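Q: Given only this backbone (224 positions), what sequence would you predict?
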């Protein structure tokens, strides 16, 4: 069901939400984030913001339910691979990479373990929230492994005896250190990106997207 208004999915609460809202505001989109609403209507532009879990954003774009979305590349690529594996549509257009949400997806092991390269991970069990990205990397390296799927507390899995290693998002490395782990391999460098659904857009929506992109370019350049 397509609407006249441009629908943009953004993370409701989390590491991307504040910067994402700030970016839209600097682009001149006025809105008032009050309460626990799912949809927030812009007061000055034909734009509706959809406030959701970040995990839902790639699917909303790939199913064509919303027009634009802001999402971390890690989540976007993981969901894309998962949907391809299930035979579901996984197409989208990347409009631009943004200047926030930077992190890396890394494999980490016991800080005292020897590490000379991916072959040292042969036969290991890796705890992760990103099984598809881990599989893609390990297949590329020709290294066999098994997974332990966890949606939280990934970094405690080795100490808890659930896994030999982990693959998780890292920004400073402090969480790894606190859990007696060290970074062994970076498998993805991620940032937040603005994505668009595939398919037709009305002339009005198309013009609005272009205006937003031009403003975004200005806003991001001004910060550099
Ligand atoms: P939600 O409740 O929306 O599912 P979440 O807990 O999955 O939230 P957040 O922790 O808010 O997600 O992270 C959202 C995104 O922020 C990550 O997917 C990643 O792209 C980015 N990010 C940037 N730095 C980090 C970091 N140090 N750790 C985790 N994510 C980070
Ligand atoms: Zn999430």
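A: Predicted residues:
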């Amino acid at each position: 069901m397509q609407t006249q208004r441009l629908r943009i999915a953004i993370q409701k609460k989390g590491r991307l939400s504040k910067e994402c809202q700030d970016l839209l505001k600097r682009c001149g989109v006025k809105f008032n984030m009050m309460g626990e609403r799912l949809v927030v209507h812009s007061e000055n532009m034909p734009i509706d913001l959809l406030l959701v879990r970040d995990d839902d954003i790639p699917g909303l774009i790939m199913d064509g339910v919303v027009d634009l979305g802001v999402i971390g590349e890690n989540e976007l690529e993981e969901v894309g691979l998962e949907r391809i594996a299930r035979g579901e549509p996984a197409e989208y257009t990347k409009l631009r990479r943004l200047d926030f949400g930077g992190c890396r997806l890394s494999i980490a092991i016991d800080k005292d373990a020897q590490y000379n390269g991916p072959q040292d991970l042969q036969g290991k069990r890796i705890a992760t929230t990103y099984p598809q990205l881990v599989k893609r990397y390990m297949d590329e390296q020709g290294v066999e492994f098994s997974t332990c799927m966890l949606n939280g507390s990934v970094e405690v899995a080795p100490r808890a005896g659930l896994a030999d290693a982990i693959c998780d998002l890292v920004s400073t490395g402090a969480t790894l250190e606190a859990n007696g782990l060290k970074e062994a391999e970076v498998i993805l460098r991620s940032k937040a990106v603005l994505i668009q659904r595939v398919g037709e857009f009305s002339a009005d929506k198309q013009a609005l997207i272009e205006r937003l992109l031009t403003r975004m370019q200005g806003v991001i350049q001004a910060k550099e």
